[in-house]
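User: Structure please.
Assistant: Input sequence and predicted structure:
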Amino acid sequence: MEWGFIIAWAIKILALFVIILTGVAYYTLAERKFAGFIQDRPGPNRAGPLGLFQPLADGIKFISKEEIFPKNVSRGMYLLAPTISMTCAIMAWAVMPFGGTIPAPLWLTSLTGVTTIDLQVANPDSGVLYMLAISSLAVYGIMIAGWASNNKYSLLGGVRSTAQMISYELPMGLSIIVVVIMTGSLRLTEISDAQKGVWNFFTPPGFVAFFIYVTAMFAETNRLPFDLAEAESELVVGFHTEYGAFKFALFFLAEYMNMVTMSCLTTILFFGGYNVPFGIGKGTDWAVWIGLAFFIVKVLFFAFLFIWVRWTLPRFRYDQLMRLGWKKMIPWGLFAVMFASIYTVYWKDSWVKLFL
């Protein structure tokens, strides 16, 4: 039975890995299509019908291109940087709850003896801390890439990114603390289940914390209007200027994977995760699948928000970025934590009753 559990666990991990990589590949296509729509051009449309084979063509191109190492790079660190970025992007998915428990297919039950499958790889007590730790480690990939490339543009991009991610981790952490205070747990499944009555977004402190979190989310993923680590108009492409072929593909996939991860985390922390509003499908055999469908729809909305903002807002200046983080976001984050503490002690029960 133990070996059966291990086999089932490995199959679940492999399936999740394939789904993630496929989804992220088509996420890049979605961004290019939407960018084309905004700029009044068709976007990718040559590889397959409606350009649907474009991610496959890009993957083949990245893998088949010649691997070039610029002169005087620190070779070991140069190769380590994209590995760190991709590894951290994948590891974040280990604790992501996509839904409840579903019956195992018959072939899996006959092979392993497992009768149910949790739509989550792992469910540790400290899931929130795990996510914060992984997001903190991701900065090392960018920082090492900038330093190891032996390129001043790359180094400046790495330094910018390090300062930016450290600065915005503080308000992001404070906004997450608001959720932890209101739900009383660090376990992501319990945070999601605690919102069956009312989503955190619809509570006064959760509403404030949401906007702090979303702003920090864009800075953490180095996306416009906070893409100062790349800033192609002034730094070529910043920290990955000297990277090409498969090494660049790892950075590229890690960026989009982090965007989807943040979209999932936003859904879990503020919008009920896999919980369905108004009790739709409650008590039916399809309840878990309906919850999974609602989770995917919520994630797709925030994934689209990344694209929408990128092609709508201009880039911040670096001094504006730092001023916003330290002088605006952190004070508001501290206020939200204090507000959440007062709300949880005095107002939470009466507020939830308004929605029941």
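The longest strand covers residues 101-103.
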